[in-house]
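Side project, low priority. Logging it here so it doesn't get lost.
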Amino acid sequence: MIRVFYFSPTGGTWQVAQHLGDRLGALLDAEVEYHSYTLPRERETLPQVEAGDVVVWATPVYAGRIPNKTLDYVRRALRADGNPAVALVTFGNRAYDNALAELVGLMEEGGMRPVGAAAMVTRHVFSDTLGAGRPNEEDLAELDRFAAQVAEKLSTINSQLSIIDVPGEAHPERYYTPLKTNNAPAGFLKAKPSCNSGLCTRCGECQEICPMGSIGEQDGLPAFDGICIKCQACRRHCPTGAIAFTDPEYLSHVAMIERTFAAPNQAEFFVAETIK
């Protein structure tokens, strides 16, 4: 069994995780199960990993690391007895910084055997232009080649494998500091979305898809009172475009990354070597 776990507020990580899971399933002639931990109710229980299962764990990169509000759950969930595992992170064309090393490190600490690790470019959730159209056909072709390499290693999993050497720190202490267009730190940690009452249809979609369960209701309109991780799920899923982030510091950061990181970045892949 291949068990694919993913956190995907806006769908980009899910797209990549599903492609990799389906490909591995076809190559290994194995059943694939998908488990989201995006919503609060999905994180109420920890995943069950059975002997012989292959674990694929997928997460977006937030400020260069695993999203901080999911980190404790990921740490508790990545527990197994020598099960082979694949680490997958997605990033919005800027950089994945320490996220992949952090995920691989948590797998190793939890008793898993990382066989492969990948960092895939997806559209940045803050922007309509940064990473637009990613993953493209070339990205997915590279992901298919990675899946084939992983499948080959899994066929000889009883062999001794080297530790995967991925860039970054396995135990980072800090997150990436977002910058404004003038390169000063952008202070939008407490920024929250707003709703245009003239466009809102009171459909409740934003309340259903908030990964933090932070959107309530006041006078029939969404109320953004709880923790906001800037995942953009509410804005991206709103059918009428009623939700926006208008904080000036946030908007300055978006302008900076669109200007600075416009050149297409590349996916990166790492596979454990067999020790002879």
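Brief comment: The CA atoms of residues 94 and 261 lie 6 Å apart.
Revisit when time allows.
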